Amino acid sequence: MEKRDPKHDDILQRLDIREVLIEAGYQQNRRFGLRLPSYVRLDGEGKRIRGDKFVVTQDGKRCFRPPRKREYNAVSFIREHPQFFPEYCEGMDTDDLVELVSGRLLPPPAGELRELTVEPPDREVRPFDIMDYEVHRFDPKKRATQKKFYPYFTYRGIDLRTQAAFHRNFCLATRKRDDGVRYTRLSFPMVRPKEEGKIVGFEERERARADGSSSYEGNAQGSDMDEGVWIASPAGTPLAEAKHVYWFESACDAMAYYQLHRERNRELDKAVFVSTGYFPTTKQMRGVLERTVPARQHICFDRSTAWHDSAWRLQQEICRTVREAIVETPERKPYLDSIPDGQDLTEGEFYLLPKGGLQESCIRFDSEWEEAMSMRSSGLCAPEDVQDQINTMNRCYREYREKLREFLGIDREHDVDFTREEPDYRHKSWNGQLLAEQRREESVGQQQEREESAEEERQTRLGR
Question: Is the whole-model pTM more than 0.70?
Answer without folding.
Answer: no
